[in-house]
Specification:
With 104 residues, the chain is mainly β. It contains three helices and five strands; from the N terminus they run βββαααββ. The longest helix is centred in the middle third of the chain and has 7 residues.
Length: 104
């Protein structure tokens, strides 16, 4: 079986430059672990619109990219709601070795 290494990720609300109408606050976070498991702390939520803005970038951030790749260097994502301007940071928090055949 072929093994592959992926990063576990944490997405954290770094700042809110407008007004938070979705209920997010600075420091709120979710994690993406084991390739596809989304974890949100008990009793918390994460706005689906903020989530949808960061989701397309996560598969690339789970992988090691060339040093010159902009996505290897950049880690900030903004919510699409211009009233809120929620800025989130994507961080790599660990690595996992997974069997490629176990993933789709």
């Amino acid at each position: 079986m072929a093994e592959m290494e992926l990063y576990d990720l944490r997405v954290t609300v770094e700042r809110i430059e407008g007004r938070s109408v979705c209920g997010l606050a600075v420091g709120d976070w979710f994690e993406l672990v084991n390739s596809a498991e989304l974890r949100i702390p008990a009793g918390k939520h994460f706005c689906v619109y903020a989530l949808q803005s960061v989701l397309p970038l996560l598969p690339a951030k789970q992988r090691r990219l060339p040093d010159a790749d902009w996505l290897e260097r950049d880690s900030l994502v903004c919510c699409p709601d211009p009233e809120e301007r929620v800025v989130m940071r994507i961080e790599r928090i660990g690595t996992r070795v997974l069997e490629a055949d176990d993933l789709t």
